[in-house]
Design a protein that fits this description.
heterodimer, A: 192 residues, AhpD-like, globular, B: 179 residues, mainly alpha
Chain lengths: 192, 179
């Protein structure tokens, strides 16, 4: 049960973003720029950063949601699973490994990002803006993960829920749906 | 030296926002609505939550600037800020604020550390849903800002006078993106 009254048909983050629309607007805008805006990192790669950080923060809802989004974007399930298990042996580029290692240190604390980690990423060709965006995506998910779990929002157990959510994030990104979310009400909590 | 090529001599988050203004705008908009928007918690109280979380995250820049903003907003009661940062439970802040700061401290560790008992304690002192929501979101937001500022090793001035001036500016003008 959430600690504050949230609409039942929108579990996880969506109910919170509808509860407080004035704070949701800049959070959504920031997320859309970072995860879907122009970048030399692919959308799939950026979703992997979100996934790894959410896993580190033990946020089941965000981990499942961004795993699903990464899988839709990458067209397979293997990469996200391997990245969550062990970055160093995952099937991603050396540059992505270096960036994911930076993200997982940001998750623990900003000061954990050492000059050596940054140098390693730059040696693999990471640009300043890629490093910037990696750190900010990781930091942003430290916000989301705490927001979602700190207010004890509902984490659906049905895998289909996350599949549909992943497809919605693929199709529409992170902006509020222009029609709102009432259409998800029809069949109760498990609908989306 | 910052980890990336940000403008020199510009402190903390301002240097990062000048490096990437597109993301800077929503970052500043969020601070403005959370810390200055309509709320039954005063801007001074909300800045205190921000400073408290930043201290726990050991982010010198954010702690010093938001403590200074809170002092400036508390005016005659400015000692409250240092009392809370020194020892929150034994400070003279209200019981409701103690309960909310306790929740913020749990959020700083991890979202799933906040318990029903923590929430009940805040409700005992008449904290509303919106106040609990805003406390959790302020704590979560500063868990982001703190990591952004330190994760890129942005410059944190060590001169206290710099922060006093920053605090007065934040108290007076709020969160305006640097040009």
């Amino acid at each position: 049960m959430p600690y504050i009254p949230l609409v039942e048909h929108l579990p996880g983050i969506t109910g919170l973003l509808e509860y407080s629309k004035d704070t949701a607007a800049p959070i959504r805008e920031l997320t859309q720029i970072l995860l879907r805006g122009p970048s030399t990192l692919t959308e799939g790669e950026r979703e992997l950063i979100a996934t790894v950080v959410s896993k580190g923060n033990e946020c089941k809802f965000c981990t499942a949601a961004h795993t699903a989004a990464a899988d839709v974007l990458l067209g397979e399930h293997e990469t996200s699973e391997k990245v969550k298990q062990d970055i160093s042996t995952a099937p991603v580029s050396e540059k992505m490994k270096a960036l994911l290692l930076i993200a997982s240190q940001v998750q623990k604390g900003g000061k954990n990002v050492t000059a050596a980690l940054i140098d390693a990423a730059k040696k693999e060709g990471a640009t300043d803006i890629e490093i910037h965006d990696t750190v900010l995506i990781a930091a942003l998910f430290c916000l989301y993960n705490r927001y979602v779990d700190g207010l004890s929002t509902i984490t659906p157990s049905d895998p289909d829920f996350y599949q549909s959510l992943g497809e919605r994030l693929f199709k529409y990104g992170y902006n509020r749906l222009p029609q709102g979310y009432d259409h998800l009400k029809k069949n109760g909590v498990e609908q989306h | 030296m910052a980890h990336i090529n940000v403008p020199e001599g510009v402190p903390g988050i301002r240097s990062l926002v000048m490096f990437r203004p597109e993301t800077g705008k929503p970052l500043y908009d969020l601070a403005q609505v959370l810390l200055r928007g309509e709320s039954t918690l005063t801007p001074a109280e909300r800045e205190l939550i921000a400073a408290y979380v930043s201290k726990r995250n050991e982010c010198m820049f954010c702690m010093s600037s938001h403590a200074a903003a809170s002092r400036s907003l508390y005016k005659d009661e400015r000692n409250m800020v240092d009392e809370v940062l020194h020892d929150m439970q034994h400070s003279s802040v209200s019981d409701k604020m103690k309960a909310l700061l306790n929740i913020a401290g749990k959020v700083q560790i991890l979202g799933n550390k906040v318990t029903q008992e923590d929430i009940n304690e805040a409700r005992k002192y008449d904290a509303t849903d919106k106040e609990i929501h805003d406390t959790v979101l302020i704590a979560a937001t500063f868990s982001m800002y703190n990591r952004y500022v330190d994760g890129l090793a942005s410059w944190a001035p060590t001169d206290a006078a710099v922060y006093d001036e920053m605090g007065d500016r934040l108290a007076e003008k709020g969160y305006v993106t640097p040009k």
